[in-house]
């Protein structure tokens, strides 16, 4: 029996329409955490309002304690499943360190690009947010210096 091969466009439009959405890591949308009925059968996606991707595990453990285990989410994630709250910094993976570990980037919700908006980078999600706060403070100080002079 010959297997039928489907084109990528067919899969994007007919089989899985969410694939056609082009989203950036810092953009929000609807939560894509998989939901299940009591006996393990799939029940679709969460669908709640999301403001960015799921936060890194070290940051979630810092916020909720060492035994917190959120559901796995790929793409936008609501605050109930470990995503950022409205107005909070958004943290996403952005490459690797020199030692091959994950590098995290922290940005604010109004992020445009690295030339126009402050960002913080670190192998730790928690430290990336601290670096973002420092970058925001230095940007505010630079703007204040320009206005005074």
Proportion of strand residues:
15-25%
Give the distance, in angstroms, between the N- and C-terminal Cα atoms: 78 Å
Structural class: alpha+beta
| H-E order | HEEEEHEEEH
Largest sheet: 3 strands, antiparallel
Shape: globular
H/I helix tally: 3
- Name the poorly predicted regions: 1-17
Attribute tags:
three-stranded antiparallel β-sheet; alpha+beta; about 150 residues; two-stranded antiparallel ribbon; 3 helices; disordered N terminus
Written description of the protein model:
- The protein has three helices and seven strands, in the order αββββαβββα.
- The chain has 149 residues and is an alpha+beta fold.
- It has one domain (24-148).
- A three-stranded antiparallel beta sheet has the order 5-6-7. A two-stranded antiparallel sheet has the order 1-4.
- Mean pLDDT is 78; it is low at 1-17.
Compact summary:
The chain has helices at 8-15, 57-64, 125-148; strands at residues 29-30, 34-36, 42-45, 49-50, 90-96, 102-107, 120-122. It is of the alpha+beta class and 149 residues long.
What topology emerges from the helices and strands here?
Layout: H1 8-15, E1 29-30, E2 34-36, E3 42-45, E4 49-50, H2 57-64, E5 90-96, E6 102-107, E7 120-122, H3 125-148
Antiparallel strand pairs: 1-4, 2-3, 5-6, 6-7
